[in-house]
Specification:
about 280 residues; four-stranded antiparallel β-sheet; 4 strands; alpha+beta; elongated
């Protein structure tokens, strides 16, 4: 199956899979039954936590929460600088989407992915049910998963990222002397393409691109390089190596003492009579 046939997984579905890992169907059904008891106006999503209130039996109220550490900000300026060279990621964020490529970029620069795994999310509930996580916690997970399908940027809010402030810094276009210019006028770094794993990056350079890339050299140097490259196809390939089991050639036979003396006599005769 190629990348065009593969269906992308939404942030909500990713959250749901992580939250329900190892949870049996009976507990999942109980969580879905408890979902309507969440008091929607009391759902609060803040940096590092999701909190809500749920109506229990006999008029009781349960306080439910999910907690996760916010992302470290020490390398955020580096992330902003790289995002200025990542047109497709920025356009997705401006439209409220959070592409996988941004998640990979955050992981590479900040050292921790934007999207958390189940082990990094802790929970709490004021109920006294023995199962952990209880149905109230699972219901809150499901509520947030559904919200992510409609508001994917809320995962940024949860991890302590101010999306609008980050985009404001990205839109600042002052030159960055520490980063080399993008080659051939491409809109972003090829390594940051959203589908880089499936992309064919084995592209060859044309003569015009080589001249542009090596523009600091004299024209005759570029032409000589191109001619040399064009002539490589006419060079005969080296002879194939012999098979591994081919015996080595026999060593030359060592000359005997008698043959050596006879040879010396013959050379002496020729030097004495050069005309013979």
């Amino acid at each position: 199956m190629n990348s065009a046939d593969r269906k992308s997984v939404s942030l909500g579905e990713r959250w749901r899979r992580e939250a329900t890992r190892g949870v049996d169907d009976t507990r999942l059904a109980a969580a879905l039954d408890a979902l309507p008891s969440i008091r929607k106006p009391m759902v609060r999503i803040r940096a590092g936590s999701i909190r809500c209130e749920m109506e229990g039996t006999m008029g009781s109220i349960h306080e439910v929460s999910l907690q996760i550490r916010t992302l470290p900000m020490r390398d955020w300026n580096t992330l902003v600088r790289v995002l200025r060279r990542s047109k497709s990621i920025v356009e997705a964020l401006e439209n409220g989407r959070v592409p996988r490529s941004f998640d990979r970029l955050v992981a590479r620069i900040v050292g921790e992915p934007l999207f958390p795994d189940a082990r990094s999310v802790t929970f709490g509930c004021s109920c006294d049910l023995p199962e952990k996580p209880c149905r109230h916690v699972l219901a809150l997970h499901e509520l947030f998963a559904r919200r992510l399908d409609e508001r994917p940027w809320e995962v940024l809010m949860l991890r302590g990222v101010d999306l609008q402030a980050m985009l404001s810094k990205v839109r600042q276009t002052e030159p960055d002397s520490e980063l080399p210019p993008l080659a051939f006028g491409v809109p972003e770094e090829p390594v940051l393409y959203p589908d880089a794993e499936d992309a064919d990056l084995g592209q060859s350079l044309t003569s015009v691109q080589i001249r542009w890339f090596t523009g600091v050299l004299a024209e005759r140097c570029v032409e000589a390089t191109l001619q040399a490259l064009a002539g490589l196809a006419d060079v005969a390939p080296p002879p194939p190596a012999p098979p591994a089991n081919t015996p080595p050639p026999p060593a030359p036979r060592k000359q005997s003492a008698a043959e050596a003396v006879a040879g010396d006599v013959e050379r002496a005769k020729k030097s004495a009579n050069p005309s013979s």
